[in-house]
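sorry for the late reply, my laptop died twice this morning and i had to redo everyting from scratch. anyway the thing you sent over, i finally got around to it. pasting the sequence first so we're on the same page, its 501 residues, then the predicted structure underneath. double check i copied it right bc i was rushing
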Amino acid sequence: MPNSIARALLHNFLGNSAHWYKRTILAYLLVNPLLLLLLGPFVTGWILVAEFIFCLAMALKCYPLQPCGLLALQAVLLGLTSPATVLHETEKNFQVILLLIFMVAGIFFLKELLRFIFTRIFVRVRSKMLLSLLFCLSGAVLSAFLDALTVTAVVIAVALGFYGIYHKVSSGKGFDEDHDHADDTGIGAETRADLEGLRAFLRNLVMHAAVGTALGGVTTLVGEPQNLLIGGVAGWDFQEFFLRVAPVSLPVLVVGLLTCLAVERFRLCGYGVQMPAAARRILEEFQRLEDSRRTREQRLVLVVQGCIALFLVVGLAFHWAEVGLIGLAVIVLATAGTGIIDHRRLGPAFTEALPFTALLVVFFCIVAVIHDQHLIQPAIDYVFSLDEHAQVPVFFLANGLISSVTDNVFVATVYISEVHEALQAGEITRAHFDLLAVAINTGTNIPSVATPNGQAAFLFLLTSALAPLIRLGYGRMVLLALPYTVSMSLSGLMATLWLLQ
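ok and here's the structure:
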């Protein structure tokens, strides 16, 4: 009887994930208290961070919320952090939480307009290099003024729409029929290769766009949350921030766009996959069918959504309100203007963002452990011990390395606070402070594209409904980001050496 109960508990634990994965998570939970006793909180804290990264890497095996949440709960119970610190970290990022809840849902209600625009782009732009560059550049330009998560949400919605259209038709169903896009049983053997080709094609495009959000996000005061933080401490307005960061951000932008063309031209790291001809035919047929059946009311929906999209861009660019509140306004305007008044039609809009929002709060718990156990303090102390001339490039590298492991907003907060205290204490000059602030901003934004841990947009993409459909796991995402990581990090480092000194 005890054995049968144990087997039943193991069967229920983490659902249908692999047994080896279940045993691994249980082993973590059993070993961590012993590690705390034997090795102390500092080493155990870093081991916990590594376990958290492992759970993210296995996102296609099991959604990270549950295993990461168990590790976070254990961290609090073991005293590695406290509920008060977790709450503090969550409150600091409340604007991001609002953004996820409302802005992602708001994008859901603009899907007809997005599908209308991007279907034409996909069908008419036949050059894969040009299409890739268009996605990367669009992500960069939009992220300079909008939040990267908002831009990523748009890309996810577009890719999901195209994948759903192809998968439905290749399963033998009509455009208007209900269909489960995660079920491949209806796909014939002769279309499997095309399906894999479409998955690879979409992986290419969404990664180009995701990297583009990092390229553009570093350039302006509103591009990333840490930019606002650093700019506020430094006392820079929008124009001064752009000019201070430009010697690093603009060369990196050019290098990033050239990297986009290079990986497509030479088919590096999984890039260079063309859209299958069958997928293009289906999209062309879908476009013709949609155009022929579009009623006056549906055309007006596109007009209304276009006006709301304009409101969204202008509102975010001029920061009329916090991003999440603008997203809520988009929901109200889009649903009121298109007749969506049934709560059952409102609910699906929130299903994409809420699991990730919960995961993000769990992530804040791990950040709280990093904060309470001072896990990156040795790196900070080492950088300040160096010669002043070497501090700028080393700050860039140190921020980049740590930001690829943990939250770049947290890393920027810690480093800019330490540098500002040094300025106030008279240990560094104002000119040197400005250079260090630029190094911190670019360091937390650029090399952090190496992993989904460093970029919230990457983590959002990894845990989205799109990722398992196009087989975009942690390891594959790291591989696809690798050419960008190398080229952008090296160009950013050279810029800090040659242009900031």
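The longest helix spans residues 189-217.
thats about all i looked at so far, will dig more tmrw
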